[in-house]
Amino acid sequence: MIDTASLIASSAIATFVIDSTHRVVHWNAACADLTGMPTVRLLGTADQWMPFYPSARPMLSDLIVAQASEEEIAAYYPGKYRRSRFPGAFEAEDFFPQLPWGGRWLLFTAAPLHSPDGKVTGAIQHLVDITEHRRTDAERTTSQRLLTEIIEGNPVPTFVIDTEHRVTHWNRACEIVMGIPATEMIGTREQWRAFYPAPRPVMADLILSQANQGEYERYYGNYTASSVVEGAFEAESFFPHFPGGGRWLFFTAAPLHGVAGEIIGAIETLQDTTERKRAEIAFAESERRLAEENYRTLFNEMITGFSVHQIITDEQGRPIDYRFLDVNPAFESMTGLRAADIVGRRVLEILPNTESLWIERFGQVALTGVPVTFEAPSEEIGKVFEVRAFRPSPGQFAVTFQDVTTRKQAEVRLRLLASVFENTHEGIVITNTDSVIIEVNDSYERITGYQRAELIGKTPRMLKSGHHGPEFYRGMWLTLLEEGVWRGELWNRRKSGELFPQQLTISVVLDDQGHPVHFVGVVVDITTIKRHEAELERIAHYDSLTGLPNRVLLNDRLQQAIAKAQREQMLLAVCFLDVDGFKPVNDNHGHGVGDCLLIKLADRFRAVVRANDTVARLGGDEFIILLADLADQDGCIQILQRILAMVSEPFLIDSNQLVVTASIGVTLFPLHATDTDTLLRQADQAMYKAKQLGKNTFFFYNGDQDAVEIETQRMIKRVERALSDNELVLHYQPKVNMRTAEVVGAEALIRWHHPERGLLPPGEFLPVIEDSDVMLELGDWVIREALRQMTLWDQQGLRLAVSVNVSACQLQRTDFVEKLEQALREAGRIDDPRLEIEITETAAISDLCHVTRLIEACRALGVQFSLDDFGTGYSSLTYLKLLPVQTLKIDKSFVLDMSRDAEDHAIVSGVTGLAKAFDLTVIAEGVESVEHGSLLLGLGCELAQGYGIAPALSPERLPDWANHWKSDPAWSQAGACT
Questions:
Q1: Rounded Cα–Cα distance for residues 848 and 842 (Å)
Q2: What is the dihedral of CA 679, 683, 686, 688, to 10 degrees?
Q3: Pick from 740, 732, 733, 735: which is nearest to 967 by CA?
Q4: In what order do the strands lie in the sheet with 516-525?
Q5: Separation CA 360–CA 365 (nearest Å)
Q6: CB 573 within 8 A of CB 638
Q7: How far apart are CA 393 and CA 283, in angstroms?
Q8: Distance separating alpha carbons of residues 672 and 703, to the nearest angstrom
Q9: What is the DSSP letter of 953?
Q10: pLDDT, greater one: 412 or 1
Q11: Cβ contact 502:489 at 8 Å
């Protein structure tokens, strides 16, 4: 029979066994060596936790004996445990800093022990040291990073592919030589794209595929095995698709091996050998020319330009370029190109703008042997040649050039003059010295509406509009005869009778003796330009949506109205009108309906105001109305009443009946102000007062309005606009376990990216809007934005719980739970919300029954609740008992001074004790130093947040911070209060 005790004692695997009372009954020598805790110290005790943790907590074997649920196991080993292959057993992996040698990584497995009748009589736990395995993984990561740095810093073009033939490295030298950035190549199997026009394996692909000799010969006819690297191959080829018209490359590909010798990828390096190849070709051509000395004399003495070339083709045999093999002196004289500069070089290298037609024609001669003759211009040289080409040998062609540039230039000039006259967009009219028309072009016919036959023999006076007087024409002719040219604008009449503006230039044409023989008029129809100027004028001064005057034109009208009121000693009313209920129209029906409503409002304004009044749109749903020529305030009131009645009449838009009203603020000139800025500001302030009076009314500025109240309303409206313009953002302050260094969550804190004032904290604007409707909209936005950010973090591998603060007014909404559930569904987080709501004591006890029901309903959705700033309010035990919250937050005002103030220290200690008594989680705010954290840990509070850990971070920065944050050593060693 096997002695179990001896088997455990002699096992090389660290093992201990506990009984049903959680007392240690076996602690073998391997376990004592691993933990540094002797067997005699632990046998018969329940202290098996002691070598592993700083304070008492269940081991995995304790949870097995207690028959804990999987949820309870997860609470102690979050994300670190898994079921074992043995029935009822679990295993986990963790780092234990308290173990000898600076801490160890352990893989531990716990399994139940059963009596013959199936009852759990204890548990056995095995511990395996995996520290070296972890260290090896880290070293492998370091090695991979070092390889990347070596490759990226290598000046030789180098790339690497993995076993899936995907590019993993594409260094900077590769980017420069091949003209393809690494971002386009990394992660793809398109390494062929740098070398070839269609997919085919590069040499590194053949290395990975362990290709046979036939495949290497198929793709790289002349290849060799490397004499330096085992398993590597080398080859040299010409790549016409490379930048610069193609390059010769010498390349080496070799396999990459893993630790066990397996192939894990392939590396390929490149060397540009183009210049060496060119030198070889040039040398060969030089030898050939020496063998043809008899031909040379005739070649040099020819008066016709002569050149010999080698055609260059792509892989499909299509001509793409040609190389100069020889040129004679006549060629040099005609073209200005010296043989010493061009022989051995490609034409596209010397003359990059050479037309493809030349290359195609010469290519056909070299490939087919059929000679051609044609005329062609060379833009690079600026000449026209008569070209004859023939083939002296396969793959080559010879060309004779005859310079016909002078003849062609004369022909082109004549055609150009005729083309300009006939095809220019400007109208041209030519007259004799008596102003009789002798020629016109098609554009002049089109502009005037007359046919050429109707104009020839007449004078331009037939087009006179009557718009200009005799003195205008006398001045025109005087300038023309004295200066030889006249330019200006005038109006003429088309054949249809339509008047049109034109830009006219008249020039005098002189004979050899300097006497006038002709007049040439150039006419430009500027009707479209004039219309465009009028349109620009309209755009600059009128609102594009409603057609009402905009702010620019309003300022001009207001100044004119003030001057008129001063002259006539009348009153001027400046009215600031804001549409009540316009935002819900946009929100519920869309901006298209909102725009349509504004257009219809503008039409009603035009109908109700008088001809000498002005209605302007400032933007959004804000309008300014100037009521002029008022004898007294009563006349203004009658018009305002008509405007209010007109606005409140229903609008029918897209089958929707919409009802809005208006709030109007009014100030009178010159009773309260005399300058435009002050008048507009006073009307704006009076409008806010009209809003406060219940809307759908008007209010006259009286100079005694409450400035604070006005500023409050202005601030509320500004925050509302900030919300709609996406100026508000959430930052997140991390929450951590100071002892275990675990990031357990984050608190969402609102910030305002103010366009002028920069990033504003919530204290700058939240108190002002606390009791407004904007506060409710803001609360809804915060919840939706926090849920959206959690999803983005999940996609990045960061799983965090996020808490949001909810105001008292938001809690009192009857549809709070309904809106919360809708936000969770839209974010796809019903099953895994990880959302916590923080409420203050004051908000919670204002309606304890309502808040209690609300918390229970939210908990059913998986949302947790935290009682914020605990200790600053009533802090009644009754509230803790009745409110179903899960977390207490100790206010930072107590934490900051707890090291100096005994009373604050006692409060923190008391709150921590209350949390334990009520089985609540406790977290402290305001940890700004190591000392704060150590004191809290001594009181048993492990969770904290504050500037000593991290400030509120932008959502983009938080993942990197969470990956690198480490707990202070003093915290991991601090003792806990028992």
A1: 10
A2: -130
A3: 740
A4: 437-440, 427-431, 516-525, 499-510, 485-493
A5: 9
A6: no
A7: 19
A8: 8
A9: B
A10: 412
A11: yes
Packed helices 591-608 and 582-589: angle between N→C axes, nearest 10 degrees: 140
* CA pair distance 565, 318, nearest whole angstrom: 84
Q: What does residue 598 show for φ and ψ, rounded to 5 degrees?
A: -65, -40
Task: Determine the Cα–Cα distance for residues 191 and 205; give it in Å rounded to an integer.
Answer: 9
Task: Extract the tokens encoding 229.
Answer: 């690297």
Would you state the structure tokens that stand for residue 521, as one six-digit string?
């008029």
**pLDDT 10s digits, 51-100:** 999 999 999 999 999 999 988 888 888 878 888 878 889 999 888 988 98
Rounded-to-integer distance, Cα 487 and Cα 506, Å: 7
Strand, helix or coil at 769? helix
Q: Is the dihedral of CA 447, 449, 455, 461 positive or negative?
A: negative
Q: In what order do the strands lie in the sheet with 158-162?
A: 167-170, 158-162, 263-272, 247-257, 233-239, 223-225
DSSP 134-164: HHHHHHHHHHHHHHHHHHHH-SS-EEEEETT
Structure tokens at 870: 């605990």
Residue at 245: amino acid letter: G
| Cβ–Cβ < 8 Å for 248, 236 | yes
Model's pTM, two decimal places?
0.38
Among residues 375, 382, 342, the alpha carbon closest in space to that of 357 is found at: 375
Tokens (6 digits) for 254? 């070799």
d(CA 569, CA 584): 43
Give DSSP secondary structure letters for 429-489. EEE-TT--EEEE-HHHHHHH---HHHHTTS-GGGGB-S-S-HHHHHHHHHHHHHHSEEEEE
Q: Is 50 helix (H, G, I), strand (E, B) or coil?
A: coil
- The pairing of beta strand 120-129 with beta strand 14-19: antiparallel
Question: How much of the chain exceeds pLDDT 70, in percent?
Answer: 90
780 Cα distance to chain centroid: 25
Residue 140: pLDDT band (50, 70, 90) is low
8-state DSSP, 397 = E
Give the CA radius of gyration of the chain.
Answer: 45
If one counts every other C-beta atom within 10 angstroms of the C-beta of residue 256, the result is 19
User: How far apart are the C-alpha atoms of 745 and 728, rounded to whole Å?
Assistant: 22
> Token pair for residue 463?
């087009």
Contact 448, 456 (CB under 8 A): no
pLDDT tens track for 614-629:
999 988 899 999 999 9
Using DSSP, state whether 648 is helix, strand or coil.
helix
Helix (H, G, I), strand (E, B) or coil at 399: strand
- Dihedral sign from CA coordinates of 893, 899, 901, 903: positive
Q: Which of helix, strand or coil describes residue 668?
A: strand
- Non-local CB neighbours of 577 within 8 Å, separated by 6+ positions: 622, 623, 624, 625, 643, 662, 663, 664, 687
- pLDDT digit string (tens) for 624-651? 999 999 988 888 999 999 999 999 999 9
Please compute the mean of the pLDDT values over residues 793-811 and round it to a whole number: 91
Report the C-alpha gap between 153 and 481 in whole angstroms: 76
Percentage with pLDDT > 90 across the chain: 38
Residues in Cβ contact with 665 at an 8 Å cutoff, skipping those fewer than 6 apart? 575, 576, 682, 683, 684, 685, 686, 687, 688, 689, 690, 698, 699, 701
- Candidates 470, 487, 476, 484; CA nearest to 526 is 487
DSSP-assigned states of every residue in 220-232:
-SSEEE-SSSTT-
The confidence band for 976, taking pLDDT boundaries of 50, 70 and 90, is very low
Give the residue among 160, 140, 164 at the shortest CA–CA distance from 151. 160
- Residue 80 CA to residue 551 CA, distance in Å, equals 65
Dihedral angle of Cα 18, 20, 22, 26, to the nearest 10 degrees = -20
Side-chain-facing half-sphere of 236: CA atoms under 13 Å: 8
Judge contact between 943 and 924, C-beta under 8 A. yes
481 contacts 420 by C-beta, under 8 angstroms: no
